[in-house]
Amino acid sequence: MKPSTLQAGTSNARKWKRLLRGELGLILILAVIMVTFSILSPYFFTSRNLLNITRQVSITLIVAIGMTFVILIGEIDLSVGSIAAVVGVATAVSLKASGSLTLALLAGLGLGAAVGLVNGLLTVYGKVQSFIVTLAMLGIARGAALVWTDGKPVSRLPSAFGTLGAGYLGVVPVSTIIAAGVFVLAFLVLNKTKHGIYTRSIGANREAARLSAIAVTRYRILAFVVSGLMSALGGILITSRLLSAQPTAGEGLELNVIAAVILGGASLSGGVGTVFGTLLGAMVIGVIDNGMNLVGVSSFFQQIVKGIIILIAVLAKRSD
Amino acid sequence: MGMPVLALKGIDKRFGGIHALRNVDFSLEEGEVHALLGENGAGKSTLIKILTGVHHRDGGQMLLNGTDVRIENPLDARKKGIAAIYQELSLIESLTVAENIFLGHEPATSFLGTIRRSELFEASSDYLRTFGIQLDPRETVSELGMGQKRIIEIIKALSIQAKVLLLDEPTTGMSQAEIETLFEIMDDLKKKKVNMIYISHHLDEVFRVCDRATVLRDGENAGTFQVAKLDVETLVQAMLGRSLKEEFPPRKGTPSREVLLEAREFQAEGMVEPVDFHLHRGEILGITGIIGSGKSELALGLFGASRTQKGALLLEGKHVQLPSPSRAKKMGISFVPEDRKAQGLFLRLPVRHNLNVAHLEPCETLGFLSGKKMQSRALRTGRQLKVVPLDPAMPAQNLSGGNQQKVVIGKWLGNSPRIFILDEPTRGIDIGAKTEIYALVNSLADSGASVLILSSEFREMASVCDRVLVMRKGKFIAELEREGATTKKIMTLALGG
């Protein structure tokens, strides 16, 4: 055997190993879960239910995509659920005040991006760990939503607003289409642009990134802005689906979202992870939730099962 | 000589299809320092890992004081009196010196099981005094310098009554004075019948401190020598299977007299005082001095990566704004930092990523990157630098030290660099990879780029550079042209003789 073919052989084997530990492994896990539920419930594997799952997953997925940027760059954002809530309130209030959907959406997205910017500035220039900064923001944003509404939901929103979160285009839920658009965009940015390469580099080794002439500060702040923006979009979809802005919306969302990203193969220490992995992670969580509801598992028990499945999935994918 | 303290006979070890060690013999006599030498991949680490119980031998014998033993795991090794000190320190930074020394075997506990701190500090003071170290045992380890930490590590190993002490590249990151203290301690230990195995890429250290040297090549014995009767040529010949003259490839081109970069009153954060120097087009300029002389700070400053910079820089005779890393990149300045793992590489990311990250523009169309172009650029650079194995999808951490260093250098080759700044480019890498890096430096200079090498390896300075500036305590104290720059002269100047 020539040395070149030998090398190709081992590198192919390595490639397969890498794939199995990465996305392929997760696809298999997802398949096993889906087959199990299909056997347990005849309704599970119908096109109607599968589309329903995509709608249920869309909000987690959108927020998780923002989180992927933050985790890839080596930070964390705990404030996503609170941002979703305060943005929901802001959108609802401006919609009622102005009557303009465009204005309301801009206000909501702008607020999300602004909160993300504050998170980023405090982390980068204030040199405080993002865990602490966003933990504080989790309280501040949630509190702001509660104070603003006096703890009561902002309801009776124009029904046209409900299209985003609850409407359908043909048989496909609108929120599924929005999530798919966000996914494609994030996939392109992370895999096909400098922004993606730099984000990954900074997460893998910030000092080496700085010494490779990468604008570290800018990209770190941007990651929080992206996360804020995606949380805002999530908050708008929640509000639209309910036609009401709940100041308590999105409580615990950060945990589901972080679970999806980590399940998707991202490393909490940064540098490693993909949006495709995040998509699969969000799907695993969504499918478990949906399937257990169909099978009639009690909601108390569901939490235990979900925790166990997440542990098994992460352990199975663990290298070495 | 009596019975050896430790004797390895016919050690064999395979990893899958790779025969890592083949019938290797090694013996350690009472009271000796025995160097274990060889290029990266020669089998040194495998042998050490068998000694410390990380790996288990497939064949052969291991005699400790004459009895055949099997080391189950690193803890077992310590129990049997084999202590290892690795390049990466195992001290706990947030604890005191005393707590670190006695970690896991605290000398005295009160009836409640709590540690009597006064006794801990006293026992530590005794140890420190024995070795003539001026250090408060109450000091937190994170406050100490690299040399002091290494010495604490040694004392920690000795506090468990180690009979065999393994030192793996112990002088990494230490200043010349600290190295001298280490050697004095080793001389002292030798008198106390502590037996040591010494692993280092620095042959001068081997000559200074070792009694015998065993060389491994491709997993086999390549000779055991009495150091007193040995010369560098023979040793390198044994390691490489080729002669020393080939270590430094000949320089074909000559530098032009045209000044490319001039620094006036330039001072970056951490430098004692401002410096002036100039760099010619196509020149290999060396800046040397011991650790702490301020050369790494100068390197960071020239790339615009320190927090503050003062003074003036002239590029081709014109004043330029003091650089930031991105301005430096635009000016065609490339920088290979001192610590390749902490500052140079994205260890967990693929080689392809590492080789492209500093210069993505050619792979970009309308803001989108082409994976194909990145792949082919990585392959081209990898081939040019002889990175082995060349798999662009493999994480950089799977490469050996020398190949990792090639990747750090390769990161900048696409930038058509005009000025290459290399800080300690051959630290801790094997001679084969060193030779390849020197050849690359030569070809860069021949193609018209200027190379600035900052290094504390005096032999390298003397053999590679067209001109050498010697730095001491932040000042340039001498300028030597190639003809006058001998290793001995540079060393004498740098050490202040």
Number of helices of chain B: 17
* Percent helix of chain B: 25-40%
Whole-angstrom Rg of chain A: 21 Å
CATH class of the largest domain in chain B: Alpha Beta
Q: Shape of chain B from CA axes?
A: globular
Q: Pair with the most extensive interface?
A: A-B, 28 and 32 residues
Note the quaternary state here: heterodimer
> How many DSSP H or I helices of chain A?
14
Low-confidence stretches of chain A are: 1-9
Q: How many domains make up the 3D coordinates of chain B?
A: 2
**Per DSSP, what share of the residues of chain A sits in E-state strands of 2 or more residues?**
under 5%
What can be said about the biggest beta sheet of chain B? Answer: 6 strands, mixed
The top-level CATH class of chain A is Mainly Alpha
Q: Could you say what the CATH architecture of chain A is? A: Orthogonal Bundle
At a glance:
The complex is a heterodimer of chains A (320) and B (497). Chain A has helices at 3-21, 23-40, 47-72, 80-98, 101-124, 130-149, 163-166, 174-192, 194-204, 206-210, 216-242, 253-263, 275-295, 299-317; strands at 168-169, 172-173.
Topology (elements, then pairings):
The complex is a heterodimer of chains A (320) and B (497).
Chain A: H1 3-21, H2 23-40, H3 47-72, H4 80-98, H5 101-124, H6 130-149, H7 163-166, E1 168-169, E2 172-173, H8 174-192, H9 194-204, H10 206-210, H11 216-242, H12 253-263, H13 275-295, H14 299-317
Chain B: E1 6-15, E2 18-28, E3 33-37, H1 44-51, E4 59-64, E5 67-68, H2 74-79, E6 82-85, H3 97-101, H4 117-130, H5 146-158, E7 164-168, H6 176-191, E8 195-199, H7 203-209, E9 212-217, E10 220-226, H8 232-240, E11 259-268, E12 275-280, E13 284-288, H9 295-302, E14 309-315, E15 318-320, H10 325-330, E16 333-336, H11 340-344, H12 351-356, E17 364-365, E18 368-369, H13 371-384, H14 401-410, E19 419-423, H15 431-446, E20 450-455, H16 458-464, E21 467-472, E22 475-481, H17 487-495
Parallel strand pairs in B: 3-8, 3-9, 6-7, 7-8, 13-20, 13-21, 16-19, 19-20
Antiparallel strand pairs in B: 1-2, 1-4, 4-5, 9-10, 11-12, 11-14, 14-15, 17-18, 21-22
